[in-house]
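Appendix B, record 7
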Amino acid sequence: MKFVLFVEGYTEKAVLGRFLRDWLNTRLGWSVEIQTVRFDGCFHMIGDMPLKAKMHLNAPSTSTVIAVIALLDLYGPNFYPNYTISVDDRVRWATKYLEDKVSSSKFKVFFAVHELEAWLLSQPEIFPPAVKQALSGKAPEEINFQTPPSKLLRKIYRSKLKREYKKVTDGKILFKKLDPEIAYGKCTHLKQMLDEMLRMAELADAPGLGPGVH
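Structure tokens (predicted):
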């Protein structure tokens, strides 16, 4: 059995399959797979997501698909109505807006608040010492639209390491060190996504059948 995971770019494609699978499999007691589908940024993803989601949900192999999960950064899209100012308002509005385009109980949308790098910031110990010392100590999801996590890391890397923070290269290294359990405990929106994926996987494991035999 598998989840189909829609992501915005190369970093997510490189790291999220293993990261999410490791957390889920320790709880399930059986192995779930993550098939990652990369889009070319959030605007391409928002535009093409409904058609591709329906494609995966209606494919001949759909019996093996637990759900299609879409993960976007909250920072980036510009389609939020003016009245959605708070994080909760934007997440609530955008989730409904995107899920309604597919209208399936097996299609779920989640957001990294405010960017995927917030999950990395949940565990400062994984960064080089000079970077770790420069981190603010704020809760990861409070690093917001003014200076989102990737911009904060770029600024600190330039200042402390005299080089650029490379989203894909550094992201791969850091995600290998990141403990999913720590990120789960500190990032509320990640927790919501993982809890829902776990719930759906448990429901998909039909009583009396071995995992994956559906």
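Remarks on this record: The first strand starts at residue 2 and ends at 7. The beta strands are 2-7, 33-38, 65-73, 107-112.
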